[in-house]
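Tip: read the tokens left to right.
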């Protein structure tokens, strides 16, 4: 099994630093591809954690890097009208020539995200059903056939163009570690893409995802190459001074999310320490069944990209 290793562009971090220019982000994408990484990712938020709009930015990245996969980590489909979303994603998939991975999630239940949904005119309590119906409507449009839809959205004998480059649309990966998220990923999505937990916990939850996929009759699940990709969103600060790296992770998380680091680190898998210990940490997820690792770095991005490239080579 080839293990893929990806890199998250610091869109949120750039805005937090008062640096909205996209050019440095595009340059980092080029650096990551040139170093041999497999994928480039961006996060999503409107008002809760302001950053660049992910699909627009990825279209720019697609024009600068011709090889790697491009993904959202993760997109919040419930915040978007699915007819418009289907059009955006189909266009992005054409621009990237089929390299887009649509990571999706429902967002955490915290006050600033509830306020974000309210500002977008979207009921927060209905976000799961809204996401799932919206994605089904997107897939209907991506077939290229006329669509009739009578649900939250009303569509009458309408066709959307262009269709995606990849027949049927891009793969959809579901985030989340709650029991319902695991089952949903196994039954309905092409990949599972949580932010943790540790490798042992990830492996246990991955088994639940695979069991749900098998129960749904999805051939090739159960951790084998086939219906569902096992992926994970990781955060890493790599420094020979482990205490310094640990402090950087804590400060980063608290500034990013506005919550105590100890609370966040129970939900998000984080590495803080020297490079020599980083590869075994990643290997734990691979041994548990993960085939695509995405890393959000804390510290100097140029240095970390080089370390990630070496780790990718060692894993394979």
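Filled-in amino acids:
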């Amino acid at each position: 099994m080839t293990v893929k290793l990806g890199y998250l562009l610091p869109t949120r971090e750039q805005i937090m630093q008062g640096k909205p220019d996209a050019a440095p982000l595009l340059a980092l994408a080029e650096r990551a591809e040139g170093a041999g990484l497999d994928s480039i990712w961006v996060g999503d938020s409107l008002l809760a954690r302001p950053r660049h709009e992910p699909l627009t930015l990825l279209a720019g990245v697609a024009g600068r890097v011709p090889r790697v996969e491009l993904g959202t980590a993760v997109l919040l489909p419930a915040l978007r009208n699915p007819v418009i979303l289907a059009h955006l994603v189909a266009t992005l998939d054409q621009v990237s020539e089929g390299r887009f991975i649509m990571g999706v999630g429902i967002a955490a239940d915290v006050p600033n995200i509830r306020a974000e949904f309210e500002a977008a005119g979207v009921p927060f309590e209905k976000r799961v059903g809204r996401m799932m119906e919206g994605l089904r409507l997107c897939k209907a449009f991506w077939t290229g056939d006329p669509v009739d839809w009578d649900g939250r959205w009303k569509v009458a004998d309408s066709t959307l163009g262009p269709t995606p480059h990849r027949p049927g649309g891009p793969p959809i990966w579901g985030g989340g570690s709650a029991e319902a998220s695991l089952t949903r990923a196994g039954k309905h999505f092409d990949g599972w893409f949580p932010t943790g937990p540790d490798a042992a916990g990830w492996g246990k939850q991955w088994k639940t995802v695979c069991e749900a996929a098998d129960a749904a009759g999805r051939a090739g699940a159960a951790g084998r190459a086939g219906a569902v990709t096992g992926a994970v969103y990781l955060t890493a600060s790599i420094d020979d001074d482990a205490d310094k790296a640990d402090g950087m992770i804590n400060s980063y998380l608290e500034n990013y999310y506005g919550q105590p680091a100890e609370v966040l680190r129970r939900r998000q898998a984080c590495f803080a320490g020297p490079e020599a210990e980083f590869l075994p940490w990643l290997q734990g997820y691979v041994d548990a069944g993960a085939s695509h690792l995405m890393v959000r770095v804390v510290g100097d991005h140029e240095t970390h990209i080089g370390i990630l490239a070496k780790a990718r080579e060692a894993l394979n």
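The mean pLDDT is 96. The chain has two domains: 1-170, 181-316.
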